[in-house]
Specification:
DNA-binding, homotetramer, Tetracycline Repressor, domain 2, Arc Repressor Mutant, subunit A, mainly alpha
Chain lengths: ~210, ~210, ~210, ~210
DNA sequence: GATGAATGAGTTTTCATTCAT
DNA sequence: GATGAATGAAAACTCATTCAT
């Protein structure tokens, strides 16, 4: 990213935009896209309704911006985590750690994100589902590269296609994280990423 | 289930109810809860709008009934599959096989189901999310029992808490099935359940 | 027009439609298309807003229906008046008489009609201006036929193209009628059509 | 009009005002009063929205100024044309000629003008309709004076009240001009004013 | 018991106008 | 004196739900 000097005006604009999105995230994740009115968002963000429409073309655009920007943020954080080391196992550890942290800190957006990826999209018209799934696919590919290189290095046994392994790991992570999310008291937050990784690393059956 | 003798009247009623739900499933999964009107459902099901309201208290109730009944149907099918044999490995194989079949045949409801379990629920007010997650939890427990007994039998190594293993398996399954769902041409439908199970059975690393 | 037997239902529907249009005419002609809200119309017509939308697709549609139906009504009345006799001069007398009567009884719609024919159309998008001008053109043709036949019969001198004469007569009529409309006390309602026709019949200059 | 020496400041102001009105005319006549926003006008005129409001109290005021000034311009041109000669017939010829030219060069404003005179006014609240009709009435009086003097001179036969004749002539003119305006290819632009005047001058029937 | 016409609360969105900079 | 960001009132339209027939 280019480091750009923003004018005071522009910085102010950006801050306002953030505030609007923050209010929207909270409301959408709490009540779902269709149960939140633009007036509600405006009120929560403490702006006039017209001001919201200066920043976002319409409700769909606001929602789409929100999801896409957040998804990019997540993937960026995860990509960075992976790149921090060259060791494949350590990469996976970092990935699980960072993913856990992101989930923990962004529970509300995560729900929206899953509604779009897995559930029936709120904004089919906006083509949001396609866009978000495409980004997901791209990230899965970078994750798959770790398995590929690990297999080449003989650090991993080849128990499946690298892309499949990436998908499997990602889903197991999600599963555990949701478990913790929904019942934090019964399912302790997985501080040690190996709790999750072990299921992959050691085979269930022998030796 | 008790086998009850239903009068012709009652059987007729039940059939009508099914027709309504069938129309609703198609519409909801295609357009999402909030983009389908009760009139649309009534028209598709070929009933008067008032008749729909004789069967369901309101739109939320209709949706909730739909989701819950379908979820029960799925869990029933899976439970039956598990009970078909005593061998733990075979049980897991049956589970994966049946789950794949259910996904394949019910893509549309599955999407709605995931929107409710994972995403931001369409019907938070109705408490649908709670109810459906509870049922999911119950089923995870019966799945966990397989791992528990397998570990006791020494057929499985104890690489995690049984419940965690159940969750992990379920999520890996979902991951693969969505993969296939979204890009059937690139990701062949996993006919052999071992493609999925191997990731569990053989550990990634050694021996 | 076919004489059709309408069911009680259908008659009731038609009556409601009339009531809605009547309320709309009054409001539109008093305040102009854009200064009347659908709620206002609904209230004046004593229907719920939703009911209005059952009868008319949208505001434009309501307005268009209104104008077109009224224009047809006018032209029908005028055509009938013309056809009542074979004598060309008498035909023109009937025309002027009927036109006066129609103006007198429908001042409000007439205003709307002229806004669409002459002024900047309220509903350009709806293509209303085109449609209404086309109908006007058609009627001018039937009016022109009177002059044509009169000229052939040697009852009229050929002082211009028949179509031009029709347009001229129509406009002189409008001029006089508006005069009366706007200041009834100064400009007596032209009971005798010859007041208007004389301007045509006797040339200004000579013989 | 008093000839006043305007300061550079004042002249500059006047020029800006003209630019704003010019932009507004184009937009209003193309889309109609209610389909043009103040922002649009500001943009087209290349001024800030606030600057527009320094010149005009509000949208209505801008529109009213526009229409009234244009109407004055028209009437001034016509009055001047009438005054160019003393001969009554020549006066009428000049009137028709000038009116044709004005129509041809100002089609867009003419439409707005007619919407206000004849149709349902865009700005009833502003009392625009009254004001404009009053000016129209005044001009009709000066036109009537020609007929009056012509009748006194025995150049014209008295086939009606002078005011009525003025109205009739004006309306026949309008009729022909609109004819040409709407279908220029079928109705040639009346270069020779006598095409229009003959309808008045020679009586239809007789002599 | 079934029907579907009627209802009106609630939603998105626009745009004239103001006023701090 | 000019600017244009911010405002919020008001409009068109939808749709879950009711209830008289």
């Amino acid at each position: 990213m280019k480091v750009e000097k923003l004018s005071r005006r522009e910085r102010e604009k950006l801050r306002q935009r953030e505030e609007m999105l923050a209010a929207a995230i909270e409301l959408f994740s709490e009540k779902g896209y269709h149960n939140v009115s633009m007036h509600e968002i405006a009120k929560k963000a403490e702006f006039a309704i017209g001001t919201i429409y200066k920043f976002f073309k319409n409700k769909e655009d606001l929602y789409k911006s929100l999801i896409v920007e957040q998804a990019d943020m997540f993937h960026e954080a995860l990509t960075k985590a992976i790149e921090e080391t060259d060791d494949e196992i350590e990469k996976l550890r970092n990935y699980v750690k960072t993913k856990s942290a992101v989930f923990k800190d962004n529970i509300s957006v995560i729900r929206l994100y899953f509604a779009e990826t897995r559930g029936a999209s709120f904004n089919i018209k906006a083509g949001l589902d396609c866009e978000i799934r495409e980004r997901y696919g791209k990230f899965m590919h970078t994750l798959a590269l770790i398995f590929e290189s690990g297999i080449k290095n003989k650090r991993f046994r080849k128990i499946g296609r690298p892309y499949d392994l990436a998908v499997a790991l990602d889903n197991v992570c999600n599963g555990f994280l949701f478990l913790w999310l929904e019942a934090p008291e019964q399912n302790p937050y997985p501080k040690n990423p190996d709790v999750i990784l072990n299921i992959f690393f050691k085979g269930l059956i022998g030796p």
